[in-house]
Amino acid sequence: MLNKILALLLISSTAHATEGQFTLLAEEQPAPFAGVLFDPIATANIMTEKDSWKLQCDLEVEYNLDVANTEFELERKNFEIRYEALDQEYKLIVEQKDIEITKLQETIKKQSPPNKWAWFGVGGATGVVATVIIAKQFIN
């Protein structure tokens, strides 16, 4: 603890024009305990150091939060751009597949014979004739 106070005092004394003084007391000297005696300037330096360190800590926390927020926003925008690109790609693929389906349906309609009932009738008649011929072969 004493080392921390001395370190604070040394750090704070470089920031001001006048330097504070301190005196070490032993147990049997005028104070009823062992400790450190500071003059008013040194005491003021120690008291202001607390506010200075708090302000510096607050500034560092705010800076780090701003950096994290900026990185988050950048990552979020990158994800939005990627989503929009993938969505456009998906829509383009669906549109191409719809065009392909339409063209294949048109091709099938063009290839089917215009007189399909005639072909159906000829196929049915051929089947009946073949069945009668086969049946006569086995029944006789």
Which tags fit this structure?
two-stranded antiparallel ribbon, rod-shaped, 3 helices, mainly alpha, 140 residues, 77% helix
Structure description:
By secondary structure, the chain is mainly alpha-helical. The chain is 77% helix and 6% strand. The chain contains 3 helices and 2 strands. The protein has helices at 2-13, 40-111, 116-139; strands at 22-25, 35-38. The relative contact order is 0.05.
Average residue-wise pLDDT:
82
Intertermini distance: 123 Å
Helix content: over 70%
| Low-confidence parts | 13-17
Could you tell me the radius of gyration in angstroms? 48 Å
Element-level helix/strand string: HEEHH
Topology:
Layout: H1 2-13, E1 22-25, E2 35-38, H2 40-111, H3 116-139
Characterize this entry briefly.
The chain is mainly alpha-helical.
